[in-house]
Amino acid sequence: GENVEQHPSTLSVQEGDSAVIKCTYSDSASNYFPWYKQELGKGPQLIIDIRSNVGEKKDQRIAVTLNKTAKHFSLHITETQPEDSAVYFCAARENNAGNMLTFGGGTRLMVKP
Amino acid sequence: GAVVSQHPSRVICKSGTSVKIECRSLDFQATTMFWYRQFPKKSLMLMATSNEGSKATYEQGVEKDKFLINHASLTLSTLTVTSAHPEDSSFYICSARDSRGGYEQFFGPGTRLTVL
Asked: Peptide bond preceding B8: is omega within 30 degrees of 0, i.e. cis?
């Protein structure tokens, strides 16, 4: 089955700096890679996703890159703000109705004002 | 974006009682819903996958008689924790997959269960 590794487990940055979180996956058949943000005491919120037919996707300060050959994908947050502080989870899945998301272990991002 | 609601958000119960948690997709139909359990500072652990109108598929190690799942409609799934014990205390999160295409998966806000 799929195995997703996520690094780092914790990340502390100064407000305004960039943050990068990296994930690797094992199943070459996976072709859907979402990222979730989870604030304390709340459910995960989908913030961006990418499918295997593209190498990069951007939404304002958030971008995701995908390298299918190396089987890794990354989340990039630019101009970080204190409200970006949360736990971020990456996930991977074959994009059909029968398969489940496999999650990484999570990254606790702390943005210092 | 798609909204998934969960009720209750927080519940405290006595040991031996049963607790029902509801999960609703508010603005889309979800033929598939998922139930997760999350321990403090840990990732999400999939408990079961439920498909509308059929029996849920449980992950290895999850007792189906203890965690009853019903997915009676395209917008509602329920998880009942039967004969709850303190070790069942946890954060339970449901998720619904939008079946219209793309198969994005959206999460509810979670339910904090405390069993005394």
From this structure: yes
d(CA B41, CA B86): 19
Contact A49 B104 (CB under 8 A): yes
Residue A35's identity, in one-letter code, is W
Cβ(B105)–Cβ(B94) below 8 Å: no
Mean pLDDT in runs of 10 for chain A (113 residues)? 94 98 94 95 94 91 96 97 97 76 96 96
**Shortest alpha-carbon distance between residue B95 and chain A (Å):** 9
Distance from CA of B23 to the nearest CA of A (A): 12
Q: Count the residues in chain A.
A: 113
Chain A neighbors of B1, CB-CB under 8 A: 46
**DSSP per residue over B45-89, as a string?**
EEEEEEETTSPPEEPTT--TTTEEEEEEETTEEEEEE-S--GGG-
Is B6 close to A43, i.e. CB distance below 8 A? yes
